[in-house]
Protein 1
Amino acid sequence: MEIKQVLIITDVNFWEGGAGHRARISSLVSFLSSNTALTILYVGQAKVLSENAFLERYSCRVIASNNLRKVPTDQYAMQVGTLLTGLKFDAVIVEYIHNTYFLQFVNDEAEFILDCHDVVSERSKEFKRFEYPNRYYDLVEEEEFKLFKLYDYVIAICLPDFNKIEKIISKEKTLLCPHAVVTFPGFIREDVKNITFIGSEYLPNVDAINSFVINCWPEIYKKHDVKLNIVGNVCKELSIKSDKINLLGFVADLTGVYQHADIIINPVRFGAGLKIKNVEALSKGKPLVTTKHGARGMYEGEGTAFLVGSTNEEFTSQLLNLIDDYSLRKWLSLNAITYTNENFSAEKCFSPLMQVIQVVV
C-alpha cells in the first residue's frame, strides 16, 4: 500500500507535555508517524525540537520558522508559503479551528481535516455559565459552523461533540477519534496515603482544585491521614497553604507521580471536550473519582471503571468510600485497564482517521 504524505499544522508545543491537549497531539503524532510519511508544520512561538530530536522521538520531520507570530501579516504569510513551497500532501490535519488560516498555503488537492479538540462555542457557553471571563479565543456557533464546512472531515474526540458536529456537516464527514493511550497496570496499596490531582494552568483545572480544597478536602483529611498532591502547572495559579497539601508543580515524567498516587481525582466543573487526564489516569489502573462533567464522553465507564460525584457532597462521599474500601479500589483498577484497552487503544481511536487517509487518491 502506498505510504500517504500527511501534514499536521499546529501552534501547540506538544513535545513539552504538561497538558491534556499536548498529550492528545503527541499521541496522534506518534500514531501517524508509524503509519504515514508525516510532516509537522509548527507555527507557534515555543522553542522547537531539532529535526534529529523529532525523528528520534516521533519518527517524523518538522518544519518551523522562529518568531512567525511576531512578523506583520504579509511577511508572515510569505514565510509560511515559502516553508511549504513545492511540498505536496495527501492529507492536511489542522490542530484547532483557529489555525484554519493556514489552509491557504497548502496544495488544494489534499484532504483538509480539522482536529477540533472541542466545540469552541460550547466551551464559551460553559465559561459564561460559571461567570468566568474567557481567556481564550471565542467563536459563536454560526461562525464556528461555517469554518467546519471548509474541511473535508472534522475530528471529534468524544461522542457528545461527534453528535453535535455530524448534524452540521453530516455523519460521513465527522470522525470520532478519542485520545489514545497505552495501559500500564499499577499497584494498589491497601492503605491510602496520597490523593492526587494533575492539571495544567487551564482555568477549569484551577477552578476544580480550588473548589475541591474548599468544599471537599476538609472532611477528607479530618477522617483520614492522607495527603493531597497537586501536580502540574496548575500550581502556578494556586495560593493554597497547608501541611496536608503538596504543590509539586510541573513534573516532566509522571511515572513516579502515578506510582505514588493511591487515588486520582478530577473535580472539574466545566469546560469542553474529553478529559484527557481521566483517560490517562485510567490507563495506569488508578482509581478515579470525577464529576459528571469530567465523565463527558466516557459515561459507559461510570460506576465500573471510575466513580462520579455530581455535587460536592457526592464527590466527598465517593472519595471517602474509596479510601475505606480496598476491594473497591482493586476492582476499579482492573476495570479501568479493561475499559481503556477496549475504548482508547491507538487502533480503536485513530482507525476512522486512517481509513480516510488511506482512501485519498
Protein 2
Amino acid sequence: MQDMDAVYRQHAQTVFKYLMSLTHDADLAEELTQETFYQAVRSIDRFDESCKITTWLCAIAKNQYFSYMKKHARMKADSDVDRMDAGTGITEAAMSAEQEVLQQVGQVELLKKLHAFPEPGREVLYLRMFGNLSFREIGEVMGKTENWARVTFFRARTNLKRQLEMDET
C-alpha cells in the first residue's frame, strides 16, 4: 500500500469529480473529499486490495455523501435545482453531445428522466454529464474498463434521447 499522501495526490481529483457529480456544489464536494480521505486513513487497515483503490475511495465518498444527505434532509429540492442551473455555464464552442441534450431539454425534466433511468446507465450519465468525468475516470469509479464506460454511456444516451423524443410527440 502506498503512503496516504501519495494516494491523496494521485486520487483526490477523481474523488472530487465523483462527489461533484453527486452534489453539484464545489464547496460541498471539497468538504466531502476531505472527509473521504480522513475516513480512508481511519480505515486503511480494512482495505484488502481486492479492488482498485479508486473504487474503494469512491465507495467511501458515496457513503459520506449519503451520510451528509441524511444529516441535512431538511434541504429543499428547489435549492438543488438552483445550484445545478447556476453551475451549467456552458459556452457554445465547448458544448459536447451530452451538453447539447442539457440545452435542448430543461434540466428539471432531464433530471426526472434520469431519476427513473435504470442502473448502471443512470450513474454513468450523471458522472459524464454533470461530473464532467472522462470515460477512463468513470471506468475507474465504477470498477470497470474505459471501454465499458463508453459503451454504457452510448447506450444510455441513445435510450434517453429515444425517451425524450417519444415525450415530444
Protein 3
Amino acid sequence: MKALIISDTHGLCQNLDKVLESERPYDLVIHLGDLEGAEDYLEAAAGCPVEAVRGNNDYFSDLPDEKIIEVAGRQALITHGHYYYVAAGVEKLIKEGMGRNVDLVMFGHTHRPLLRKKGGLVVLNPGSLSYPRQEGHKPSYMVMEQQPDGELKFLLKFL
C-alpha cells in the first residue's frame, strides 16, 4: 500500500502534476486542504481513490472539514488543521487524535512539513506543494508505504 500525502496546493497544479507523475504507482492520494477549486482536477489526475478535506481557503467546497479514514489497516484523522490552531502548535491536535483513538493524524495549513510520534500516534504534515514556508522553501509532500511486515514508513520528499 502506497499513499501520496499532499496539502496546500492552492489551485496551482504544476507541482501537483509533477508529483503525481513521478510517484506513480500509488494506491491512494490524501489531500489535506486548500485545493482552491482543484478538487475535480485532482480526482481526474490521480487515477486512484482520493481522500480530501476542506481548508480555510476552500470557501465554496463541499468537502468535509475533517474525517476519519482507514489507511493500510489504520485509522487516520485527516484535517486541514486550522480549527485546531496548528499554527500555534500541534498539542491540541495530538490530544484530539488520542481522544478519538486513531493511529494517525494528518494535517496541513502551516505549509511546513512535520513528522512526529507521540506514544502510538503518528502526526504528520506534508508541507505545501505551492507555497512552502520552511527553511529552504522547497515544495514538499509525503509518501506513506506499508512495509512487508505491516509497518508504515513515511518519506518526506521535496521537489
Protein 4
Amino acid sequence: MKRAALHNLGCKVNAYETEAMQQLLEEAGYEIVDFHEKADVYVINTCSVTNIADRKSRQMLHRARRQNPGALLVAAGCYVQAKGPEISKEGIADIILGNNKKQHLISMIEQFQRQKNSPKVLTDWEDINDGVAEYEPLTVTRQAGHTRAFLKIQDGCNQFCSYCIIPYARGRVRSRNADEIITEAGRLADSGCREIVLTGIHISSYGTDAAKPSGQGLLELLQAVSRIEGIARIRLGSLEPGIVTEEFAAALAGMEKICPHFHLSLQSGCDSVLKRMNRRYTSAEYAARCDILRRHFSNPAITTDVITGFPGETEEEFRQTMQFLDNIQLYGMHVFPYSKRAGTKAADMDGQVPEAVKAARGAQLRKLGEQMSERYRETFAGQVKSVLLEEPFLYEGIQYFTGYTKEYVKIAVKSEKDRTNSFATGKITGQLTRDVYLMVEF
C-alpha cells in the first residue's frame, strides 16, 4: 500500500484543511503514517503569518526531502500562496498547491506520477485576489480526536490590517453554504464528537459576502448548529470585537450549548497604535465589548492576541497597552512580536522596532498574561462545573482523566476507568498542578 505523511503548520483553519487532505489520501488508497516515517508522498500545509512561519515551512519541506529523496513532495497553503512562483522556480517541492486548490491534491499527484520519466514541478496556483474566488469545497467526515472537532465555516478576510499578509494569501471573505455546514456537523455528531469549534479566517464576517449562503449570518448559523442532536457544546473561533453587541450576546446566552469562551482580537491597548494597525475600534470600545459579554454570561473566559513592537511603538504606547490589559483582566493572551511582511503597509512604516526591544516587551506581556490566567482560574475553586473528559493523566502515581469546562479551564478527575469523551460533574477543589485544577466528582 502507498504511504503518505502530512504535516500542518499554522492556524486551526490549516489544521482542518490538513485533515481534509488526509481523508482525500485515505479515500485514494494511501496508508497514513507519521511525518517522521518514510513515505511515498509528503504533504506540508504551510503558514505565512510571520517570518518565523515562513522559515518553519521551508524547514519542513527540506526535512521531508531528506527523509526520502525519492518521495513526491507536495507544498500547500499560505506560504505557497504568498511565494508560489518563487517556490516553483526553486524546485524544493514537486507539486505546488495554492490556497483554494487543495481539493485537487489527488489529481495533481496522479498527474505527476504519469510524467515520472520526465518529472517537472507541477503548479496549481493562481492570484487568489484576482477576481472572485469561490469557497473551496473541502469537507471532513471525522476527526482524529473524537471529543472536539473543528468545522471550517468561511475563508478569506476583508479587513486589511496594516501588518497582516493573510488577506493576500487567503483572498476575500467567502462563506460556506449553511446547509453544507449543518450536514458536516451532523456527521461529526454521528461519529461521536461532542464539541464543535466553528473556525475560519474571519468568522465574524460569515454571511456578509455578496452571495449570502441561505441568507444566514453567524448568529443564524449558530442557532442551526445548536439544534443538532449529539452536539453538546459549540465553541467559537476568534471574533472581531465589533460583532459583540447587546443583541448578539443576548442571543448567544440564550443558546445553552454555546461555550462562554470568547477570543476577541485586541493587538494593542493603545489607540494610536490601533489606528496605525488599521484596527477598527478603540481600546474603550474593546473594553465595552468585554463588558457586554460579562453582563450576559457569568464569568466568561475572554482571551486575546497582542502584537508587541509594532512600527513606531514608543515606551509610552507600550505602557498604555500594559495598563489597559492589567485593568481589563482577561483569561489569557497570545503574544507575538511584530513580523515585517513584504506587501503590507506596515512593512514600509518608519520606526521599525529593534528585535531586542520586541522581545523584552513580549516577555513583560507574557508575564502579565500568566498572572491574569492564574487569577481567572482561581475563581473556579469551590464551584460546581461540568467537564468534557478527553485523555488520561498520571500524576504522582494517581490516575486521572483531564478535560475542560465550557470556559476552557483544564480539570482533572480521579478515575481508573477510561473516561474519554464523557462528561463529569463535580466540585472544583483547587489546583492539582500549575495548569490543572482538581475536581471531586458527584
